[in-house]
Amino acid sequence: MAITALFALLYAVVFVIGVWFLPSNLFGLIFMVGFTLLIILFQYGISPYIIQWIYRIDWIPYEEFAARFPHMADSLDKVVAYNGIKRPRFGIIHDLNPNAFTFGHTKNNARVVITDGILEYLNEKEQNAVFSHELGHVVHSDFIIMTIVFAIPLVLLTIARWAWYTSMFSGRRRSSDDDANVLYLLLIAVAVLSYISYYLGYLISLMVSRVREYYADQHAAEVLEDPNALSTGLVKIAYGLLVDRDINTNVKERNRSKVRALRGLGIFDPNTAKGLGIISVTTKGVLSMDAIEAAAAWDLYNPWAKYFQFLSTHPLPARRIQRLNEQCEFYGKKPEIDFSHAKEIAEEQAGKTLWDQFLWDIFMKALPTLIFVALLGVTIAWLFSLAELITIPFLNAKFILLMWAIGFYLIGFGSIIKIKYMYKSGFEPKKVVDLVTNVKASPMRSVPAIIEGKIVGRGVPGYYFSDDMYFQDESGLLYVDYRFGIGIVDMIFALRTVRKIVGQRVRIKGWYRRGPSPYIQVDTIETEQGRRHRNYAKHLRYFWVVLAFLIGAVCFYYWFVI
Q1: Among 170, 190, 218, which residue terminates a domain?
Q2: Rounded Cα gap, residues 342 and 346, in angstroms
Q3: Cα–Cα distance between 136 and 559 in angstroms, integer?
Q4: Is the separation of the CB atoms in 512 and 525 below 8 Å?
Q5: Among the options 134, 213, 293, 336, which is catalytic?
Q6: Are residues 186 and 249 in the same domain?
Q7: DSSP string for 348-417
Q8: CA distance 9 to 15
Q9: Residue of 537, 477, 490, 475 whose CA lies nearest to 510
Q10: Closest by CA position to 269, among listed 91, 365, 146, 152
Q11: Which of 160, 189, 218 delimits the end of a domain?
């Protein structure tokens, strides 16, 4: 993410310079498209080296790797021999956040990295499946494919922006010359079409990325000749509750069981994976299908899941497990993970449908924006009346100013209602397992909770600038979202504070939410050393409330003056 932000900043600076100084013609456009492609190639070339620099990776020689992890070494040798590629380098990040990822330029200079969390919580077969999934990205040349796929929308965005800004400049300079007016309209049309093409291209890129993940899953199944290994691995890394009770154990019994959880990042979308809880295998090692289905029900039946899947680079875990289950018959295996009762569990928690709650969430999320759009509509109607396109007698400048004055106060109050909806009061002690299987939770619909346990790692393992953390109690492990919302504040907290908190027992008060995966947004963290770290992300939202009230007051002032 830091790499992307760095190159985005470079691109933005050069683009502004180009628009200002280059001629507004085909040559200027070709130059900016060429520069965009150059940035993409430069990022592709330098990114692996930056990753090695900003992540603390312990690179393991092959001989040591084969001695310590013979099960993964066998798969590596098999894949290398079959595909005729050079052996990828292997690295470990010493962090209990379970993660696995691959990077490099081509299949012949790839690097595969796993964390201590993968080794700690997955059995050897599951470790092998996750490792083989990453090898699938290598042999499928996903480094190159996804670079090209995501480059196309960026080129379209460059064309759109160039046409738009050029039209703005030419619009200021145009006269009554018919040719100039035609050129202006043509540039506007090109900008609009390019923007539409960019967004469509971006959505197609996300879809291609999800397909590549399915292919990598299929590769893992082929290497092990058993799709179940990756399925149970995904269950552990993602959300899949493994308990020491009978397979028919009910949710209430599961919630009382003593379990622990973990979360996946690397083989999921790093921008959206917010800490998927799991419950570990105990001495009996029995899968509680009831518990797994309760966790997976969100992916399958909550409308928010469809929204996040549509905008994600990775399929949601339940969808991937379903696809792996379909492959079991080919290998003569019976699926070990079953979601046949997930709908019943979802209905037990939320009723027949979650769509009413989803639509209400959307309404609350958009409430201030809806008020603003309504004000904009009234203003546009007034402008049409000035142009004598329509006739609305009571619309005049003073009335419009009064509407905006009242409207900004309504926006302020609407924002307060939204904040109260998102940040509920009534904090109660919870366990991770109580939170993870909540089907009704969403980005808007939070569960105020107090959890006590230990910070075991960073949110992004091995990443120096990770301001988020990873929490564990006796029932599970959960992603801790400490993001304040101001970049410099987040970076200072990451560099100065997170490393001191890792390893300490803490008490966290915050709001449990579910994006594509579970996480808790921090209000307060109290450490065993007596330090108290407050997060003011909620309070920062009131800045916009105050701003709306101030603008409303100014509008009222001028309304009285007029």
Answers
A1: 218
A2: 6
A3: 66
A4: no
A5: 134
A6: no
A7: HHH-S-SHHHHHHHHHHHHHHHHHHHHHHHHHHHHHHHHTTSS--TT--HHHHHHHHHHHHHHHHHHHHH
A8: 10
A9: 537
A10: 146
A11: 218
- Which residue segment(s) compose the domain that 34 sits in? 1-58+78-218
Do residues 26 and 140 share a domain? yes
Residue 434 CA to residue 260 CA, distance in Å, equals 12
Which among 224, 478, 416 is positioned nearest to 333, based on CA atoms?
A: 224
Residues of the chain with pLDDT under 50: 172-174, 240-287
Query: 275 vs 32, 262, 485, CA distance in Å?
Result: 40, 7, 19
pLDDT at 169: 60
Residues 223 and 208 in one domain: no
Same domain for 123 and 160: yes
In the DSSP assignment, the letter for residue 88 is P
Residues 264 and 324 in one domain: yes
Neighbour-count burial for 10-44, b at 16+ CB within 10 Å, e otherwise: ebeeebeebbeebebeeebbeebbebbeebbeebe
Query: What are 241-287's pLDDT values in tens digits?
Result: 433 333 333 333 333 332 222 233 344 443 433 333 333 333 333 44
Residues 143 and 101 in one domain: yes
Catalytic (active site) residue 474: no
Residue 321 lies in a domain: yes
Same domain, 318 and 344: yes
pLDDT value, residue 275: 30
Q: Give the up-direction half-sphere exposure of residue 264: CA atoms within 13 A in the CB hemisphere.
A: 27
261 and 282 assigned to the same domain: yes
